[in-house]
Amino acid sequence: MNYDNILSQFQNGITTITINRPNKLNALNTETIQELHEAFNMADLDKSTKVIIITGSGEKAFVAGADISEFADYDVEEGQELSAEGQELLFNYIENLSTPVIAAVNGFALGGGLELAMAAHFRIASDNAKMGLPEVSLGVIPGYGGTQRLPQLVGKGRAMEMIMTAGMIDANQALNYGLVNHVTTLEELIPLCEKIARKIMRNSSVAISSAIKAINANFKDGINGFDVEIEEFGNCFGTEDFTEGTTAFLEKRKADFPGA
Question: What is the model's pTM?
Answer without folding.
Answer: 0.95
